[in-house]
């Protein structure tokens, strides 16, 4: 069973063509083997991140045609910060979706975390670091509680987290009290999360170079290990192409950011979280267990996997990331108020995970889905705002993109079943 989870892990969200023989790791053999394998993967329903990337490019081209300031360094820099709070919450939702469940409480948990931090720090004078820690621990505890009722008691996750959505929102209002809104210290630790920029251009370029080199080394090491184990691996040509694309995107991003205020601290922290959690999902036993349970909970039980504790843990991860994301959202407006965690945040978070490529049926996706999905959603919001269009149009566009993503996911699963891959 764990082997099945590993297979889903490698093929779920990391781009098509990862599973089957792309040569012997040396790049030899037939002409352009990685391209042939890529085409075969597409025909069998393994679309990877291709649909969301095409959607993102299309959205950007449309908005650039309507207003060329959309791709200005200022707007793209603001976009890179705006995606972080929602994106962090979406990362936690990805963990829950991977086991085939959903968490409707993340918006309320994020608002409660911001409120608890603000009350402890501003009203009671608690040091920011300690207040942040308590807020995040509270989020983890809330998520674990949801997981307990779901995995141990047997209450459907939809019901448990729907109750959490209502209950934690009420607790947030109670914690805030009659003041309604609490302003944070503009020079404080939390405010710096989204307000600090690395103005030295070498920082952004250094991060781009480090990320590209790290990806290349890890890919080559994995290819060598898979060849030594006698299992299919990516060819060196395929690795070179992927590294070149990643490097071009990374250095282009660094160039644009340096033309405004430099690399935002928020974006750097977001990338670090994504890399760390991606490692957990794809390269640890725990991550393989998550994919295995998402692929079939009954089979996972028969294989002796700890289904109950894994289910509890993914909800704990979701609660933790909701709390962290809530602090970043509070940082963006330097306040915590009655509207924190409300509005369309919950819908945007779930839509980001699904649009990014995480399957609603479980067992397929990656944490990078959150980045791609939130980029699509926030790009739509940014473009609509620049054009002065009503917010209702933004909701309609986002809803259409979400529907297309779910349809593609359903068709992809159908194609994989036809090819014996599900």
TrEMBL record:
Segments of this protein annotated with the region Disordered: 1-30
Keywords: Cell inner membrane, Cell membrane, Membrane, Sugar transport, Transmembrane, Transmembrane helix, Transport
Membrane topology: Multi-pass membrane protein
Record flagged with keyword RNA-binding: no
Keyword ATP-binding part of the UniProt annotation: no
Pfam families: BPD_transp_2 (PF02653)
Alphabetized GO MF terms: transmembrane transporter activity
Subcellular location: Cell membrane
Principal cellular location given in the protein's record: membrane
Entry GO CC: plasma membrane
Stretches with biased composition (Basic and acidic residues): 1-22
InterPro entries the UniProt entry points to: ABC_transp_permease
Transmembrane segments: 47-66, 78-99, 106-124, 130-150, 157-177, 197-218, 239-257, 263-281, 308-330, 342-361, 368-389, 395-412
Function: Part of the binding-protein-dependent transport system for D-xylose. Probably responsible for the translocation of the substrate across the membrane.
Protein name from the UniProt record: Xylose transport system permease protein XylH
Organism listed in the record: Streptomyces lavendofoliae
